[in-house]
Amino acid sequence: MTNMELAGKVVQELVNSGVREFVLCAGARNSPLVHVLDENKNLKVYSFFEERSAAFFALGRIASTRRPVAIITTSGTAVAELLPAAVEGTYSSLPLIMVTADRPKQYRGTGAPQTIEQVGIFSYYNEVALDVDAENSHISFKSLSWKKPIHVNICFEEPLIDGPIPKIDVPSISERTRLPGQLPLGTLKEMEEFLNSHNPLVIVGILPEKAYGTVLEFLKQYKAPVYCEGISSLRGHPDIKDIEIRSGEKMIHRILASKTCDSILRIGGVPTARVWRDLEDKYKEIPVFSVSFNHYSGLSRSTQQCNSLDLLSQVEFAYNHRENVKVNIEDASRAEHIRSLLRKYPQSEQGLIFSLSRKMHRGSLYLGNSLPIREWDSSSSHDAIPVRVAANRGANGIDGQLSTFLGWAHPETENWCLVGDLTAMYDLSSLWVTSQLDAKKFRIVVINNGGGQIFSRMFNKEIFINKHQISFESWAKMWNWSYEKWHNIPEESKLSDLQIIELIPDAQQTHEFWKEYESLWKE
């Protein structure tokens, strides 16, 4: 089998399995694959020069399209650049297909140029590693679960381009057009027993878009107090206004401490709220039942779990939660106090988020790392909500966030991204792909508070903060994006299609906000 035949066979098998988009980092060793993709114009190809950003962009495309996406690299350390995205893909259940070109197998272990041990490099973070060449060209994805990344390593002999370029047939109905639904490991009966024998607080984490309606209908019927994280896309939904906790995470602690609720029902991804970590020690006796889209419990202790969000539409329950109305009354009072603080300190970091959130109504919002996620949950308006919210919170912190945002962006909405300054600096090359996208309206908001201020309230050491005095105006100019610096959120602003906004909080107002906020919860 020639190199070109082998490349064509791999691409055809990917297409037969439902792949419709390829993220390509072209090089010499993967040139057979490059030629196949370039000559078959019926395949969608995004071109990148840098593998780490490309892999995170592919994760964004998977999250947006609910299809597997393949990233193709050359050999050597280019392969290693995919590891961070493979980790995130594993814990977010996003099947990134990593197709890596390699030198012939006899070069392994020799230290020859561009030769590293590529097979097995992703360790736990792939479901399978397929090692193929002209002599062993069998490749099949039929037995895979599609719950984790997949590694396909292809060894090419020289000369690399050794025959005609094969034609790829794209079937109109593929064998796998969408990511598969996961079968539940728990049972419907176990869930019903839990719901009918406990008085749980519901915490909703990140959700696939197709699950929004199912989860919302369950919450409306079950009527338990519910805390919706921003990344669930249900925060502030008018249909759950009477049961939603809107004063922030501290209210969860009051509910658990008072034993108003005796358990936790988690729906969706592993919550980002601090209270979830407290379930390991402070609240270790509180029962937890998780209804999710993957098998990760998010806790080291024993819990009950069902891996099918669809079962929420089938579960039956008899418990009535109306006696928890006193929770909603206290929560509403505290939420109003917090809104008054946000209006009192409009240039605080929290006040800026509150005002900014009103501009994102009916748009798509990507929250880029820990601090923006927490500040969105605590400070954004419940009255003007995005239609889509997402984040990479399977495992990663600040790498590849802008790239994932660009991959996830929707062509029919304004696309907003809220990130910290260090996060933006970690992914400066991400804007490369913008001209290749169908989505056109992008607003990247960089909260520039001079370093990693999330640590300022955790540790009393400046070394954690990585202080700086960098402005992002030159970054915007480099990629021909428009740039604005905001100390206040303007009521009226005409933004360009490609817009970077540098948000500058007032440190003193932020300090005063937190001081009064903490006092509020001591009552």
How would you describe the overall organization of this protein?
Pfam families: TPP_enzyme_N (PF02776). InterPro entries: MenaQ_synth_MenD, THDP-binding, Thiamin_PyroP_enz_TPP-bd_dom. It is an enzyme of class 2 (transferase). About 2% of the residues have low confidence. The protein contains 16 helices and 17 strands. With 523 residues, it is of the alpha/beta class. The strands form 3 sheets. A 6-stranded parallel β-sheet has the order 2-1-3-4-6-5, with helices on both faces. A 6-stranded parallel β-sheet has the order 13-12-14-15-17-16. The termini are far apart. It is globular and about 75 Å long. Helix 3 packs parallel to helix 13. The chain folds into 3 domains: 153 residues, 3-Layer(aba) Sandwich (Rossmann fold); 142 residues, TPP-binding domain (Rossmann fold, 3-Layer(aba) Sandwich); 176 residues, Rossmann fold (3-Layer(aba) Sandwich).
What's a quick, concise take on this entry?
The protein is α/β, with parallel strands linked by helices and 523 residues long.
Separation of the first and last Cα atoms: 76 Å
Q: How much β-strand is present in the residues?
A: 15-25%
Query: Pairing-aware structural class of the strands and helices?
Result: alpha/beta
Fourth-level CATH superfamily of the largest domain: Thiamin diphosphate (ThDP)-binding fold, Pyr/PP domains
Rounded to the nearest angstrom, the radius of gyration is 24 Å
Large-scale geometry: globular
Quick one: how many beta strands? 17
CATH architecture call of the largest domain: 3-Layer(aba) Sandwich
Q: What is the top-level CATH class of the largest domain? A: Alpha Beta
Percent of residues in helices comes to: 25-40%
Strands of the widest sheet, in order across it, are 2-1-3-4-6-5
Low-confidence stretches: 174-178, 180-186
Keywords: Magnesium, Manganese, Menaquinone biosynthesis, Metal-binding, Thiamine pyrophosphate, Transferase
Subunit structure: Homodimer.
Family: Belongs to the TPP enzyme family. MenD subfamily.
Protein name: 2-succinyl-5-enolpyruvyl-6-hydroxy-3-cyclohexene-1-carboxylate synthase
